[in-house]
Design brief:
Blueprint (H helix, E strand, L loop, with lengths): L1 H37 L1 H12 L3 H28 L2 H21 L3 H15 L4 H10 L5 H18 L2 H10 L1 H22 L17 H9 L2 H13 L1 H19 L3 H29 L3 H20 L4 H15 L3 H9 L6 H30 L3 E3 L2 E3 L2 H7 L2 H13 L15
Antiparallel strand pairs: 1-2
Length: 428
C-alpha cells in the first residue's frame, strides 16, 4: 500500500511538472531570440568599427530583424493555430541558428543584413509558439502567471546579452562571441526536439474548430480591444527596444562617464528587473482577478522611474537600481497578453496574441530608427579610432520619445474592457 501511495504521489508530481517542462522547452526559443534581439547593445561599437558605419546604419542592421519579424507575424499566428506547434518551432529555430553562424563569418554589411532578416523570420514564432502551447496545457486563470514566466525566461536571455556577452566579446572578439551564440542555439534546438510535447492527453480546455483564415485575421486585426492592449505593450517595451536592444550601453557611458563593461552591467539590470517583475506582476494580476488596473499602475510607476533615469543626477549604484525598477514596472506589459487571450476564442489564441507581437516588434523598428535619427541629426559627431561618439545632449534629445510613449500608453488604457481573468469573448 505504501509503495502504491508513493507511485501515486510521483504521478501527481509528474503531471504537475510536465506542463511547465513542456512550456520551458518551447520558451528556450524565446530565450534565444532575446539574446539575438538585444546583443547589439553589447557589440554595437564593434559592429560600427568593423563595418565602418554610423548610428543610422547600425539602426538598420538592428531593426531589420524586427522588420522581418513583423512581416511574418501576420502569418505566424495563423500557422500556429492550424499546424504542429512543435514542428513549426523546430524549423524556425533551425533557420535562426544557421543565420547566426553565417553572421559570425560575414564581412559584408549586406550579408549581415540578410542574416538578421532571416533570424527575424524565425523569431516571429518564438513568443506565439510558447503562448499557444501554454493554452493547451494551462487553464485561462493561470495564463497571466504562465505568460509572466515565459517572459522571465526570455528576459534572462536579454540579460545574458548585456554584461556577460560584453565580457565575452572583450576576450574573444565579437565574431567568435556570435559563433558561440550559434552553438548555444544548436544545443537549445536539441532540447526543444526532445522535450516539447504538443498537448496533454486530457485537454485543459475545449478546443473549438479553427476559424477560417480571413475571418480570423479580420476578427483579430480590426478588434479595438486587441489593438489598444497591443499599443500599450509596444510603448511599455520602448525602453527595452532602445536601451536594452541597441543604445543603452553607449548612452550610459556618456551619461555616467563609465566604461563599456560598467555600462553593460547597468543596462543588464533592465532585464533583471523584468525577470523579477514579469512573473510577480502576472501572479498579482491573477490573484486580484484584474487586468487593467495593474496595467495602469505599471505605466505610472514606469514614468516616474524613467524621468529619474533621464534627468536626475545619479550615481552608478543608484542608476543600477533605477534600471532594475524600470524593467520591473514595465513588465506590467505581460498582463496584456493574458487580457487578449481571454478576450479571444480559444480557436484563435495565437492569431489574437500576434496582434500584440506585431505592434511590439514593429515598435522596435520604429523606435530604434526614430531614436537614431534624432541622435544623428542633433549635432556634430566625432570619431575615436573609427568609432562615432555622440554627445550626451544628443542622447538626451533623442530619449524624449520614451516619456512621450509612456504617456500615450496610459491614455490607451482608458476604455479597455476588463476581463477579470475569465474567457470573455465578445462579438465585434
Amino acid at each position: 500500500m505504501q509503495i502504491a501511495d508513493n507511485f501515486d504521489g510521483y504521478d501527481e508530481m509528474k503531471s504537475a511538472l510536465l506542463p511547465w517542462l513542456v512550456c520551458f522547452a518551447a520558451t528556450m526559443f524565446f530565450f534565444y531570440e532575446f539574446i539575438q534581439g538585444n546583443m547589439f547593445a553589447s557589440i554595437a561599437a564593434n559592429i560600427m568599427q568593423d563595418y565602418h558605419i554610423q548610428a543610422d546604419k547600425m539602426a538598420y542592421l538592428s531593426s531589420i530583424y524586427y522588420l522581418s519579424n513583423v512581416i511574418f507575424l501576420f502569418v505566424a499566428g495563423i500557422i500556429l493555430d492550424r499546424f504542429s506547434i512543435k514542428n513549426t518551432l523546430l524549423i524556425a529555430m533551425f533557420f535562426c541558428v544557421v543565420s547566426t553562424f553565417i553572421l559570425a563569418y560575414s564581412h559584408s554589411f549586406y550579408v549581415a543584413l540578410f542574416c538578421r532578416f532571416v533570424t527575424g523570420i524565425g523569431s516571429a514564432f518564438c513568443f506565439l509558439g510558447p503562448v499557444r502551447l501554454a493554452s493547451h496545457w494551462f487553464p485561462p486563470k493561470r495564463m497571466a502567471l504562465v505568460t509572466g514566466a515565459i517572459v522571465t525566461v526570455a528576459m534572462t536571455g536579454g540579460m545574458l546579452a548585456q554584461y556577460p556577452l560584453t565580457k565575452l566579446v572583450s576576450y574573444v572578439g565579437w565574431r567568435e562571441a556570435v559563433q558561440d551564440v550559434g552553438i548555444l542555439g544548436f544545443a537549445m534546438l536539441m532540447l526543444m526536439l526532445f522535450w516539447i510535447k504538443e498537448r496533454p492527453q486530457v485537454a485543459v480546455r475545449k478546443e473549438a474548430e479553427p476559424i477560417k483564415v480571413i475571418a480570423a485575421a479580420k476578427k483579430a486585426y480590426f478588434n479595438g480591444q486587441y489593438l489598444r492592449a497591443a499599443l500599450y505593450t509596444s510603448l511599455m517595451n520602448m525602453a527595452i527596444a532602445i536601451f536594452g536592444a541597441m543604445m543603452g550601453t553607449l548612452y550610459l557611458e556618456q551619461r555616467l562617464s563609465i566604461s563599456a563593461e560598467q555600462a553593460a552591467m547597468v543596462n543588464g539590470m533592465l532585464f533583471f528587473g523584468a525577470i523579477v517583475g514579469a512573473p510577480l506582476v502576472g501572479w498579482l494580476s491573477d490573484k486580484v482577478g484584474l487586468r487593467v488596473l495593474p496595467m495602469k499602475v505599471g505605466v505610472c510607476a514606469s514614468m516616474l522611474t524613467l524621468l529619474a533615469v533621464l534627468y536626475l543626477p545619479v550615481s552608478l549604484s543608484l542608476m543600477m537600481v533605477l534600471f532594475f525598477l524600470l524593467g520591473f514596472f514595465t513588465s506590467a506589459q505581460v498582463i496584456s497578453y493574458a487580457l487578449v487571450a481571454e478576450s479571444s476564442s480559444p480557436a484563435m489564441t495565437a492569431t489574437a496574441v500576434s496582434v500584440i507581437s506585431i505592434l511590439t516588434q514593429g515598435g522596435y523598428l520604429i523606435y530604434q530608427n526614430l531614436f537614431s535619427t534624432l541622435l544623428t541629426n542633433y549635432g556634430s559627431v566625432h570619431l575615436i579610432n573609427g568609432l562615432p561618439v555622440y554627445h550626451l545632449d544628443a542622447y538626451q534629445h533623442a530619449a524624449i520619445i520614451l516619456p512621450v510613449g509612456l504617456l500615450i500608453a496610459l491614455f490607451v488604457l482608458f476604455g479597455l474592457r476588463e476581463t477579470r481573468c475569465r474567457q470573455t469573448e465578445h462579438p465585434l
